[in-house]
Amino acid sequence: MPQLNPDPWFSIMLISWFTYSMIIQPKVMAFISTNPPSSKTPTVASTTPWNWPWT
Predict the structure, then answer these.
(1) Whole-number Å distance between alpha carbons of 13 and 21
(2) I need a labelling partner for 46 at 20 to 30 A (CA). Which of 3, 4, 18, 35 fits?
(3) Would you list the DSSP string of 1-51?
(4) Can you give the pTM of this predicted structure?
(5) pLDDT at residue 14 in the model
(6) What's the longest Cα–Cα distance across the chain?
(7) Which of the four pLDDT bands, split at 50, 70 and 90, describes residue 40?
(8) 46 pLDDT exceeds 60?
(9) Which of 8, 12, 9, 32 is closest to 20 using CA atoms?
(10) Using CA atoms, how far apart are residues 33 and 46, in angstroms rounded to an integer?
(11) Phi, psi dihedral angles at 11 (to 5 degrees)
């Protein structure tokens, strides 16, 4: 069963993760967020319980 042979796929996975971790991820993390978090406190919506007629 060739699916169980990790020889070609393990090296491809390692090279892909190395590329992602060392090259792509720092470039993506260097972007400035276009929507910085605000210091406003979130408002909580007031909800009323539903009165079920059969309980």
Answers:
(1) 12
(2) 35
(3) -GGG--HHHHHHHHHHHHHIIIIIHHHHHTSPPSSPPP-PPPPPPP-----
(4) 0.43
(5) 92
(6) 64
(7) confident
(8) yes
(9) 12
(10) 32
(11) -70, -35
User: Mean pLDDT, the chain, as a whole number?
Assistant: 81
Q: Which residue has the tokens 């910085």?
A: 36
**Alpha-carbon distances, residue 7 vs 1, 16, 20, 21, 48 (angstroms):** 13, 15, 21, 22, 60
Residue 43 has pLDDT above 80, yes or no: yes
Tokens representing 51 are 């009165």
